[in-house]
Design brief:
heterodimer, A: alpha/beta, Rossmann fold, 4 domains, 21 helices, B: 30 helices, 5 strands, elongated
Chain lengths: ~575, ~750
């Protein structure tokens, strides 16, 4: 069930199968991202893969002394590029791997193009998704829906991605979906269709309890992606943005050249792996420890290496020192920047009010706090807008709802029109009318008691009170209590036992906060393995773009522009 | 990283932490909680998911390994489609080449044009002129000015503009290549045959003549663009097959070197680790040689990859950027390789250091051995006590049913202990016997394919082993206390035993032992009382005791296969007279060569050692040495025998502590009262003292070899740092390098 490992295994297998010799990896735009998530350059270099080329790049030179490993999505363009490539082969031999199911006719046209018999392998390796963490995957699709319905192209891509995931994990699941969402049902049907069509592919060793695929819709919980985050991974994404494990630091003041873009990958960064789920304060103390360790290891300039013992110690410590220096400088820079942003944007205060809006039900206090923050000049446009959005979502139907007043405040503050419009767009996207379940007031007795107790005990940490709605859903699912009238099964058969292997997919994107929730459920629940995925991994900014792209409020013209922009950004 | 940069980091971090705190203070509500969370109170459970660390589930990083995901191959399908297409293509090409061969098979220049034409027409029928009014390629109308031309290869018609020409050398290349490929099948080394060569010669002479005679169509073959295309493609294929670019040759060499390193480096690391631990399995010289060899290979890798990097840089049309990128990447990966492996290449101890290490290790081994022996002995004693009742039954092979009910076997259907297993087994410990039996039962059950029974038996076996282990450890703890009390009794007894005639007694003893082996241990328990009885029984008892102690050793052997425990039974069984002929190199130790009466004490050695060991095992310090001095000389000698036991260090050049002492370059601060007393020896090689002793000297005498090693290493770092562009580091390293070189020069001067 480890998605990173699954993709990595595929890539390793490809490289292994091609035997010794210099190799070039021929990829398309998407597979480049897929491979880069699981392999570092130096790792792949050691396997004699020296060049990475895009199948669509035109100025590739003929290098007959190289073997080519092609890892491509089975799209029409890629097949065409490959046909051209095979007609005039640039490399000595080709190992072709498609990341998904390819049609027989495409295979035939490829075969006919291979007049020089350079192709040695044609296979389907189902690494057709971005493996972010062992239990988290993404498809990097922004703007998957138009209004309430799927963009057809994105639906097909999502179906491919999801079926590839199932194949790579060798799971043939039962499917449940969120009834309140039409898109969830549609996707469930599409996945089922593929499973039925490719039944011989989905024939795996049966497990006692069949795996489960649960398809949800972001609309059901628009709160989570609007909150500021305080755990390392989530916070970095929220404030700096993580794009395929890469973080753009070029806007950090006084950044040195080699830190413009850094990679945070738990696969080969121990500090990150150990700290990605810890909260900011803990990171602070951990990074201090890291620094101290580093200081100890650092060879001292002043002190000459006088004895051979000194020298030996130096030589032995040097490699560790070298490795550490990279890690230290990276994390110190990232954490430093985070802390700068936190103070610059007054995020502690903002976050506190956000949490209050998300978790408590005191309207007047909430309103007061929002108003107070809207007057604070340090609060950014985006933060101000999202406070109002949170208010709008929570107190949408409240008797003394004063949303218009807050929107006026936004205008008076000089918040741009885009954000003001987004307030109503977000309400339309994830408002009460759309939600299939109640985000804010617990229904069943246990939950009420829980909340009551929570109130009694006081809150542990005001910044992390919020628990994504997903937690409750998964909790119910694991205990076998998830209501079938809200989350029906596709098809007649239902699961008798509690589920063990669970794949959750959220249309409209997941967040790192939810990834953490799934991570913790994995760690605390024996026998249960949850893999979480979404069309994208969102922070507030990308989530708002998603909302814009869905084109609610009839602004189809504007939204298409946004789609184009976001697409180019990807 | 420079200090300046580092300072910046520090400032940043400190600043950030301060800033963080002030912020926290601002947010009053949060303050306490956040600060509290900075501590290690993670386990404090809260409402947040990440705080509840009840490890019921599994971290996704720890999920068990999974197999490769689903795959589907289209290769056979692909090949099927390709084969159809390829056949067609291959036939086409072959047809053209056969025709080409026919067209060039005669001497064109010396043949009349008409005859040539006749031959050409016989190769392929020409298309009728009337059938083609327009050039099929460009569409121009044929006329008197625009005349028709025939392709000699396929017979089709085109205009002059669209016509291509094939020169004879080109044609020859194509035809000879296909012939070559045929001939290579029979004998690869064979050069192009003589017929070939002669023809080639004639062509070259002819073409030189023809070049003088102006361009004449006859020495070239007309053909259409399509045929020419096909032939050009073919030519390209031939070229590629024959041509290996320089980079490939270099790269292959590079990979060979890397493979060599992959082979040699682990071997070297094993050697170095062993040598650094003071073991003598490998010789220092050999390891040094290997190190040099590996380093040579590294240099070669470096040189080769550098050569690859600069390949073609000076060429006039500079190589394609991709070629350069490839070269850079190969260089980079070679650098990574060198870095990774070279840094893992630990240095060797110097000769002097090695001697020290050896000594230290020997000391440690001794201690360990003594402890082991002692533990084994004691546990054995205890076991026997507790399981007295088991003993008799153990002999009957009913043991299985004895141990905790679960054994489901009835005698009739049960497994028999392996024949001879009991007879040859020297395990007087019933538990061990049982373990043996069950092991053989399992084997039999497995052979019979009774899986359930194997399971039950294995479970049984596990329980037994657990029990055994547990008892062993329990006993070991008690031993030291009881040891002292038993000691005097034993000594007395041994004195008596010494006076016996060994040869005769041994025969008797062997007879007895066959019957009483498993019981013999019991005698030891009552031994104190049996010291009184008359002469005859006493000797028996003595042997029983012998047997007992030897059994202890042998039963301990499977648990702790230390050389001593293996050695001990040998001594007992062969008896004192055999001791001198002992094949073991022990006889080299002067104290033991003579068959002096003290040798008779051998059987007691485990006990004696055991009694001494609790003290010896402490870091040898003043008081312990004093106590030890009070022991009688026999015991000391026993100690020595162990200390000098070549068994532990068979290759050691100086197994005898006395030899070592002579070699010891520094006078010991406290000269021992009894020369050669092993306990004194222990004190002087005490790691603490040794360090203070030899520290300064060692530093003065930095070995050249080591210096060179370090210089090598630093060079590698510099190279690496340069590679990555960390100039400040390079500076620092260069400084170090200079320092080292100076030291080296100084060293050479003084020597």
């Amino acid at each position: 069930m480890n998605v990173v490992f699954a993709v990595k295994q595929y890539v390793s297998k490809m490289i292994e199968d091609s035997g010794p010799g210099m190799k070039v990896l021929l990829m398309d735009k998407e597979t480049t991202g897929i491979v880069s998530m699981v392999y570092t350059q130096s790792e792949i270099l050691q396997k004699e893969v020296y060049l990475f080329e895009r199948i669509d790049s035109q100025n590739r030179e003929i290098m007959k002394h190289l073997k080519a490993i092609c890892f491509l999505r089975p799209t029409k363009e890629n097949v065409d590029y490959l046909i051209q490539e095979l007609r005039r082969p640039k490399y000595s031999i080709y190992f072709i791997y498609f990341s998904n199911v390819i049609s027989k006719s495409d295979v035939k046209s490829l075969a006919e193009a291979d007049e020089q018999e350079v192709v040695a392998e044609v296979q389907e390796f189902y690494g057709d998704y971005i493996a972010v963490n062992p239990h988290l995957f993404s498809l990097n699709i922004l703007g998957c829906c138009q209004g309430r319905n799927w963009d057809p192209a994105q639906l097909s891509r999502t179906t491919q991605g999801l079926t590839a995931l199932l194949l790579s994990l060798k799971k043939c699941p039962m499917i449940r979906y969120q009834l309140s969402s039409e898109s969830a049902k549609r996707l469930a049907e599409c996945v089922k269709q593929v499973i039925t069509k490719e039944y011989e592919l989905f024939e795996f060793r049966r497990t006692e309890v069949p795996p489960l695929l649960l398809i949800l819709d972001r609309c059901d919980d628009a709160i989570t992606p609007l909150l500021n985050q305080w755990t390392y991974q989530a916070m970095v994404h929220e404030l700096l943005g993580i794009n395929n494990n890469r973080i753009d630091l070029s806007r950090v003041p006084g950044i040195s050249k080699d830190l413009r873009e850094v990679v945070l990958s738990a696969e080969n960064d121990e500090f990150y792996a150990n700290n990605m789920y810890l909260n900011f304060a803990e990171i602070g103390s951990n990074i201090k420890t890291l620094m101290e360790d580093f200081q100890k290891k650092k060879p001292k300039e002043q002190q000459k290496l006088e004895s051979i013992a000194d020298m030996k110690a130096f030589v032995e410590n040097y490699p560790q020192f070298k490795k550490m220096s990279g890690t230290v400088s990276k994390h110190v820079t990232v954490v430093g920047e985070l802390s700068r942003l936190v103070s610059e944007r007054n995020l502690l205060e903002v976050s506190e009010v956000e949490q209050e809006l998300a978790c408590q039900n005191d309207h007047s206090s909430a309103l007061q706090n929002v108003k107070r923050l809207l007057r604070n000049p340090k609060v950014t446009e985006c933060d101000a807008a999202r406070l109002v959005m949170l208010y709008a979502l929570h107190y949408e139907r409240h008797s003394s709802n004063s949303l218009p007043g807050l929107v006026m405040d936004l205008r008076n503050r000089g918040v741009s029109e885009k954000y003001r419009k987004l307030v109503s767009a977000v309400v339309e996207y994830g408002g009460k009318r759309v939600r299939g379940s109640d985000l804010f007031s617990p229904k069943d007795a246990v939950a009420i008691t829980k909340q009551f107790l929570k109130g009694l005990k006081g809150v542990e940490n005001v910044y992390t009170q919020h628990q994504p709605f997903l937690h409750e859903t998964l909790d119910h699912l694991i205990k076998g209590k998830l209501k079938e009238n809200l989350y029906p099964y596709l098809g007649p058969s239902t699961l008798r036992d509690r589920p063990q292997d669970i794949v959750v997919f959220i249309i409209g994107g997941v967040t790192y906060e939810e990834a953490l929730t799934a991570y913790n459920l994995n760690r605390t629940t024996p026998g249960v393995r949850i893999v979480l995925g979404g069309t994208a991994v969102h922070n507030t900014k990308s989530f708002l773009e998603e909302v814009l792209a869905s084109g609610l409020h009839g602004r189809s013209k504007e939204s298409s522009q946004v789609t184009a922009r976001s697409a180019s950004r990807r | 990283m420079s200090k300046g940069k580092l300072k910046k980091f520090c400032k940043k971090v400190v600043g950030f932490i301060l800033q963080r705190k002030s912020l926290v203070q601002k947010a009053k509500k949060a303050k306490n909680r956040l600060l509290k969370r900075e501590g290690d109170d993670r386990a404090e459970s809260g409402t947040q998911g990440y705080e509840s660390f009840s490890y019921g589930g599994v971290d996704p990083y720890m999920w068990e390994p999974q197999e490769l995901g689903a795959v589907r191959s289209h290769l056979s399908d692909f090949k099927k489609h390709r084969a159809a297409r390829i056949d067609h293509y291959v036939v086409e090409v072959n047809k053209l080449i056969i025709r080409l061969e026919k067209l060039t098979a005669f001497d064109r220049t010396n043949t009349e044009s008409a005859k040539i034409r006749a031959i050409e027409k016989s190769v392929v029928p020409w298309v009728n002129d009337q059938d083609v009014p327009f050039c099929p390629d460009c569409g121009n109308k044929f006329s008197i000015r625009n005349r028709r031309h025939h392709c000699r290869l396929c017979g089709s018609i085109m205009c002059k503009k669209c016509m291509e020409l094939i020169s004879l050398p080109f044609a020859n290349k194509l035809t000879s290549a296909s012939k070559d490929s045929l001939s290579t099948h029979t004998s690869p080394s064979q050069s192009p045959n003589s017929v070939h060569g002669s023809r080639r010669g004639s062509i070259s002479s002819v073409s030189s003549v023809s070049s003088v005679l102006d361009e004449k169509d006859d020495d070239r073959i007309r053909c259409c663009t399509h045929c020419k295309d096909t032939l050009l493609k073919r030519e390209q294929q031939i070229d590629e097959k024959e041509h290996t670019p320089d980079i490939v040759k270099l790269y292959e060499k590079l990979r060979l070197c890397m493979e060599k390193v992959d082979q040699k480096a682990p071997e070297y690391i094993r050697m170095a680790a062993s040598l650094n631990a003071g073991e003598t399995t490998y010789s220092l010289e050999h390891a040094g040689d290997l190190r040099i060899e590996v380093q040579k290979v590294y240099e070669l890798i470096d040189a080769l990859s550098k050569k690859i990097l600069t390949l073609g840089l000076n060429q006039d049309p500079p190589p394609h950027p991709n070629t350069l990128r490839l070269q850079r990447m190969i260089r980079y990966s070679a650098t990574l390789f060198v870095q990774e492996k070279l840094l893992g290449l630990m240095s060797l101890p110097t000769r002097e250091q090695f001697e020290e290490l050896k000594k230290k290790r020997k000391q440690e081994m001794e201690r360990k051995r003594i402890l082991e022996r002692q533990a084994a002995l004691e546990s054995q004693r205890r076991l026997k006590e507790r399981q007295n009742d088991l003993v008799s039954r153990a002999a009957n092979g009913e043991v299985v049913s004895l141990r905790g009910g679960p054994a489901p076997l009835r005698k009739a259907e049960g497994w028999l202990p392996l024949s001879g297993g009991q007879g040859q087994s020297e395990d007087s410990d019933p538990l061990l016997q049982q373990i043996h039996n069950i092991t053989s039962f399992i084997r039999q059950a497995r052979a019979a394919g009774r899986v359930d029974e194997v399971h039950t038996l294995q479970e049984n076996l596990r329980q037994l082993q657990d029990e055994y282990d547990q008892q062993q450890t329990e006993k070991a703890i008690e031993l030291s206390r009881r040891q002292a009390e038993e000691e005097d009794l034993q000594r007395e007894q041994l004195q008596m035993l010494r006076e016996r005639e060994w040869e005769r007694e041994r025969e008797q003893f062997q007879a007895v032992s066959l019957h009483t082996r498993t019981r013999s241990l019991d005698f030891r328990e009552i031994r104190p009382f049996q010291l009184e009885p008359g002469r005859e029984p006493r000797t028996h008892l003595a042997y029983a005791l012998d047997l007992g102690s030897s059994a202890v050793q042998s039963s301990a052997a499977p648990e702790t296969p230390s050389p001593v425990s293996a050695l001990e039974p040998v001594r007992v069984w062969s008896g004192p007279p055999a001791f001198g002929q002992d094949p073991l190199p022990q006889s080299t130790v002067p104290q033991q060569t003579s068959l002096n009466p003290f040798e008779d004490e051998d059987p007691s050695s485990p006990a004696a050692d055991g009694s001494a060991s609790p003290l010896a095992s402490e870091p040898a310090s003043g008081p312990s040495a004093c106590i030890l001095k009070e022991y009688n000389p026999f015991e000391e000698e026993e100690e020595e025998a162990v200390a000098g036991n070549p068994f532990t260090t068979p290759d050691s050049p100086a197994p005898n502590p006395f030899d070592e002492e002579d070699e010891h370059p520094y006078p010991r601060p406290s000269s021992p009262p009894v020369p050669g007393n092993p306990f004194e020896e222990a004190t002087c090689t005490n790691p603490f003292e040794m360090d203070s002793d030899s520290g300064p000297e060692r530093e003065e005498a930095i070995e050249e070899e080591l210096l060179l090693q370090q210089i090598d290493n630093i060079k590698a770092y510099i190279f690496d740092a340069k590679q990555c562009g960390r100039l400040d580091e390079v500076e620092l390293l260069t400084e170090n390098l200079r320092e080292l070189k100076r030291t080296l020069a100084k060293q050479k001067g003084t020597n």
